Amino acid sequence: MKQYVKLGSLFANSLLSMAIAAGMATLEGCGGGGGSSATSGGATDQLQSQAGAPTLAEGTTGGGGASTGGTSGTGTGTGSGSSAPTAGITGGSTTPAPETVASTLGYAAPTGTVISGADGASQWRFSSTKTLAYSAGSVSTDVSGSVLLKFDFGCQTSAIVVRQTDCRNSVSARRLLPASVPVSGKSMLSIDVRNVDASANFAVMLWDSTGQVLRYPLSLRGIENRSPDAVQRVYIQLNKPSSYWAGANDGVVHDNIVAIAVSAQPFINDFATGGMNYPAGTLAFGDIRLHAASSFDYTLQTNAQRVTSAYTSYKGRLAVASDSLEPFYLDKALQAGIFTIRRDLNWEGAERAGVFNFNYNLGFMPGVQTRGMKILWVLDYGHPDHGGTTPQTADDRQAYANFAQAAATAFKNKPVLAYELWNEPDSSIYWTSPDPVAFADMVSRATSGIKTADSTAKVVTGGVVLGPDLSYLYKLAGQTTKLSQVDAIGVHPYRFDSFTYTGPYKRVSNSPEAYAADQAVLSKLLTAAGSTKPMWDTEAGYSSYLFLDSTRYGNGLDPRALNRQGVLTLRRVLTQLAMDAPLITLYSLYDTAYNATDREHNFGLLNADLNEKPSFVALKNLYNSVGQLTFKGYHSDVPPHTHALRWDNSSTSARVFVMWNDDPDFSTTVTLPAGVTAVKSWTGTTITPATATGGAKQITLSEDAGPVFVFVN
């Protein structure tokens, strides 16, 4: 396999949260995965707080289905491939088993001090940084008294389109408070928001008694509230603005809050050209409060209200990039619950003077098959006889199609999950002068060839790097006729860890869980382009160098960086499981060299000596704990920034809960249910719960500590 090292820039801006603080890396091609579209919910005419009511009706019943093996929550997962998806990736479906669901929520929102309630729009004033017609907007109210901030950053477009005109702008609804509100003893602010359009970035701005303005981005949507119709209460830390100016100009709220504003900006507001224009939208908001604490209390109930999953197991849904298919590597992947290997099938190596030979890779198929595993072949990267690095002409693209058909013929009836056509075609590293129309033509030809050779084969387009400019993905998805036979569109949602700009003041979090919000935008964009194809996340991972804050975690070989990589890797997998991703491919299985300051040599689950990194240990612990159990979905009654997934043993009363916190600004105290047999960290270390007044056992979830496993009988 060739090694291709990308030298492209690491974006400081990317999709949705990408547009204001996220970062999608442009990386070499190995890895993969998938995700479902955003959950839809029923529309409502009034803005209501989620506190005190379940977010989704699905939380009233549990999914059934037998799991394989394992007799308790700590059963060891073995390499049985029976649950691995076939070439057609589908969800598990079984008859739901009745369950008595808790009638009360495990979390009650704090009350706080009201700054602005349901007093209508008359107290709010609309403002815009531009006076152009397309920057028009307004402030109004709905029947509940919630404020509606309307905006239009699309140059009066009625649909999502490729940007033709620079419509960058910022609009806001601002209110001068009738009486200043003291902030002494207050540490966080909450606001109820709803944005059906999924078409802008939002922030709250506060003016303190010194005239200082402090800005706090609002992160809408997450694992538990992906619906664009969902009303959610967003919490922000007063001492963590993303930016501030004027007055004291020190990032600290002084004395009193005298005015407040809610603002909206385009997704990609740093680019005058390129990107997309979105039609007009609305942010509904209300019930703004101050709170004294920055922590939440949660009672874990074994029958909590929850959202069920389409999959009863994640066996077969994890994949990893690997340069080798030797038995050692296959067995290591299985230990981590990984049943699919993503690997390059090199065009240049397979074709000589028009003759194809796949014997080398065919030799590994028996070992793959006997382990119940699958291969995700990436058909890449170019051929010296057919345009070099890029198939330049129609004849070159047909030659690639011939290669694809020959591969599908050779590997028919072999353990192949799917064929991925090319890698990151929107990157000039892999496709000279990226051209979505030419690429779609090649995909059309290659897909036709593959389906001719094997009608049951699955095909996914080469994963698109989700950088600040999404116009390539939009244009590619718009080639509906040429993509009619493909089974999915590939995306590569790489993301950095959270950023810190200056001092202690934080940026908007680019957490693994934020992909739930990003996906809402991607789904909307693909629909606007006319595509009905699902997205497969075909490559993503965390390097322990450059993807993390080196001032805090050190270089790529620092134990702190390796632990952080482990936490983020596990959280990414848990997030995608909660979102019913059919495939979650990690980049990559092992490092090819020791180099503390080279990002490409720090993505592996194993180090260059093939020893287990913390990220591998995390996945192995997950598989050993729940790999043989039935996945029941995620709890919907959790506090902000807190997540809880549940697995059941179908033969006993044993259950396993995996819980974590996704924001370092907040913590959650969890009261555990009776019957807890063990509590373990993501590394497998035993945790001793604290004893609260009355004898209840409690643990505290913090972002830096990572996920916690709770075993209950």
Q: Would you give an account of this structure?
A:
Helix 11 (about 560-580) packs parallel to helix 12. Strand 9 (about 200-210) and strand 10 (about 215-220) form a beta hairpin. This protein has 12 helices and 38 strands. The strands form 9 sheets. A 7-stranded mixed sheet has the order 1-30-18-19-22-23-24. Strands 2, 4, 5, 8, 11 and 15 form a 6-stranded antiparallel sheet that branches. It has about 725 residues and is of the alpha+beta class.
Give a short summary of the structure.
This protein is α+β, with helices and mostly antiparallel strands. It is built from twelve helices and 38 strands.
Mind sketching the topology for me?
Elements: H1 17-20, E1 32-33, E2 113-116, E3 125-128, E4 138-141, E5 147-151, E6 161-162, E7 171-182, E8 188-194, E9 201-208, E10 213-218, E11 232-237, E12 243-245, E13 256-265, E14 276-277, E15 281-291, E16 295-299, E17 306-307, E18 318-321, H2 327-335, E19 340-346, H3 347-350, E20 351-352, E21 355-356, H4 359-362, H5 365-370, E22 374-380, H6 394-410, E23 416-421, H7 436-453, E24 459-461, E25 464-465, H8 471-477, E26 489-492, E27 500-502, E28 505-506, H9 515-528, E29 535-537, H10 550-553, H11 559-578, E30 584-586, H12 614-626, E31 630-635, E32 642-648, E33 655-661, E34 667-671, E35 676-681, E36 690-691, E37 697-702, E38 708-712
Parallel strand pairs: 16-34, 18-19, 18-30, 19-22, 22-23, 23-24, 25-26, 26-29
Antiparallel strand pairs: 1-30, 2-15, 3-7, 4-5, 5-15, 6-14, 7-13, 8-11, 8-15, 9-10, 9-13, 10-12, 17-31, 20-21, 27-28, 31-32, 32-33, 33-38, 34-37, 35-38, 36-37
